[in-house]
Amino acid sequence: MKVLNPDNLRVPDAPGATPCLLGNRCQGCGTVVFPKMPVCPRCHRNGAMEEVEIGRTGKLYSHTISYFAPKGFKAPAFQAFIDLPEGPRVFSLIGSQCPVERGVLEDGMAMQLIVEALADTPEHKDELTYKYIPASGVEV
Amino acid sequence: MRDVAIIGVGAHPTGRFRDKPLKALAYPAIWNAIEDAGVKSSDISVAYVGNSLGGLLTGQEGVRGQVMLQHSGITGIPIVNVENACASAMTALRGAWLEVASGAADVALAVGVEKMDVGDNARTIGALSGVSELDLSEMGMSFTTSYAIHPKINLKSRMEEYGWTAADFAKPAVKNSYNGSLNPLAQHRKPLTIEEVVQSRVVVDPLTLLMCSSISDGAAAAVLCSADVAARFSSKTPVRIASCVLRSGVYRLPDDKGPDSATTTAYAAYEKAGIGPEDLDAIELHDAMAPAELMLYERLGLCAPGEGPRLIDDHITTLDGRLPVNPSGGLCSRGHPVGATGLLQICELVWQMRGEAGRRQIAKRPKVTMAQNQGGLLLGQDSAVYGCTILKS
User: Which residues on A lie below 8 Å from B126 (Cβ)?
Assistant: First the structure.
């Protein structure tokens, strides 16, 4: 198993440590972006971005069920946007432990980050990525 | 800047033509446009050729424009290859327009062509994913998903916000399928009912199969010249480019409250043309997913937020209405060969303005029209390309 994009996702080895996304924060205006970029999209300052750990939790902004799968993926599958408390709004798949049925997810619900294979397919079963699942007792 | 006229247009029918390579699709569009314009091919001094997926799908990664134009007997002149996703052809038109407007060229050719049916739909859809920023497509996000839940359009949330129903979503598809049924160049010529559209298979909730544009081959071309010499070549109704505006997406932070990029692009085009949305007589717009037409009504300034379905209910944007939208059938019925679409829109508007649109001719021949085209998807939560061209006769 390898992390699909190690620049975006930190998967700690230490037991009990939780995974997180890696974004950038502008040292000028405080704007946080994900994925990283070298120029702040709000104040357009160059070279003021620092790496920050973000996205351990989030809130479901929007979601749908895709009944069509691009090559290397399976359907039906949830697809979603997650609002992170640090600022960014991130496209994400939903963890496979979540049954793909209407009514399972509700926009606005608290979510938490997990790490699993991008898809349970020969193409992607060995690529680790971030996904979100409904949070259990996590305050957002 | 000189005034520029479109003096000739041509198109290849839209549909699945598995055995036709790019150059065979482009040839009839190019020569129909040349013969329609009344020019000699040797009069053309520059060409812009739009195509999006041909590198991945055909293997001809480079010099596609030169390959296609050589097949049509046009060589030696400067040929510029344009890739701008689903707005490639509109971008090619802009290049040709600037060449003539600036005085650099007297006669210019714009071509848009796409070859999508390669016998493997998964490969085509994979290539299409490549016009979204890779960070999104590698996670399995499709264009259909982007129309359903992406913050820039979020059709799913409009249902709650405006009370739009599945039947409302189906209305543009039904209207445009009727227009397409009258268009001999259209890919899908069966008039649809609300029930058929709503009950077709769900692709990405809440979008059904008959709300989505499909895999399509096609080509379109236009010949442009300086407006003051247009009559020398052609006795047809002169059609002038009043404005041609191209924009790129803006990085949208979640707290962004600014106007949508489709709106800013359209209003820039209105301003340059010296008109407002109320002056338009017909529109061809980018309904890659049919319900997007309802959103675009708002964004182009045709109605207040949430009122889109009423424009169809009240027969305003139907073929018999005050402002027909997508008289060709639009992307879902006429077809959406992505790199040809912007010029297919222009062809339709020119035919309508000349009174040459056959059974789908708008009764009161339009004098001021607009083509709205967009394409691609960026991480910054906006489409990548926006284009609007306003024509006057």
Answer: 70-71
